[in-house]
Amino acid sequence: MSDTKKTRTTVDIYGQQYTIVGTESTSHIRLIASLVDDKMREISSKNPALDINKLAVLTAVNAVNDYLKIKDRAEKLEAEIQRLKD
Asked: What is the reported pTM?
């Protein structure tokens, strides 16, 4: 069992309350929730006919797409740093 202290944080995302349990700080969890809420509202404003499930999936797809782009960029930068060291 881990000694890491977990916190419970209640957040509002797209009008729904969620209790998130994790090891991150409350402020970090609130930031993440705010960014998800913002992205959902952005997508919804461009596609008002989407039901909540499709909106959530599109938000997740956008988030993972952004993550993969950033991960790829970080890997390229790490390779460039290693190349410069060698």
From this structure: 0.84
